[in-house]
Design brief:
By secondary structure, the protein is of the alpha/beta class. The protein has helices at 2-11, 23-27, 32-46, 62-72, 131-143, 161-167; strands at residues 13-15, 19-21, 53-57, 76-82, 91-98, 103-110, 119-127, 146-156, 172-182, 186-189. It contains 6 helices and 10 strands; from the N terminus they run αββααβαββββαβαββ. Helix 3 (32-46) packs across helix 4. The longest helix is centred in the first third of the chain and has 15 residues, at 32-46. The structure holds guanosine-5'-monophosphate.
Length: 190
Amino acid sequence: MQLLEERIRRDGVVRDGDVLKVDSFLNHQMDVVFFSELAKEFERLYHDCGVNKILTIEASGIGIACITAQTFGCPLVFAKKNKTLNIAGDVWTSKVHSYTHRRVYDIIVSKDFLGPNDRVLVIDDFLANGAALTGLIELVEQSGATLVGCGICIEKAFQPGGDMLRSKGIRVESLARVKSMSVENGIAFC
Ligand code: 5GP
């Protein structure tokens, strides 16, 4: 999506360790008017799929997922990163290795909010190694819901997550795909 690529070129900052900072519009300050353009694109891609629930993971996915849910006219559920060891039986749960925080989280969603009648679009801000999406997809599978696909703002296509998920037959739509990036040479898109 050209609009997003232009925004990343203008405002994105490449950090060592293959991290792209987009704090000025996506991850810290949120340009919600811009988000509605991204959400319209997700809606164009998935409009005929009967989506009735958006799923994301806290915290940085919530903003774009919220605006996307508004565009689809359906609820958003976000998986919580569980901090306690005792997990009650009324939740779906899986594990996620956080790329940015370099630790493993248990993630949970209440069984009240995800179940067999749901057709789920998973939304997230970034796709890197695919751990976050894999954990979310596990929750969808446990719940008996139908996974319609995934909508990603920025896929770092030089990392393996996108290929890994697509090779399993999962539909992954990314609005911007970064082919390469470095502090010295900047960002190139696929
Ligand atoms: P994955 O689980 O696919 O390895 O990483 C996805 C998650 O890590 C996203 O939810 C996002 O929050 C975070 N993430 C991965 N790479 C980046 C990055 O380059 N920049 C930022 N800001 N977040 C990232």
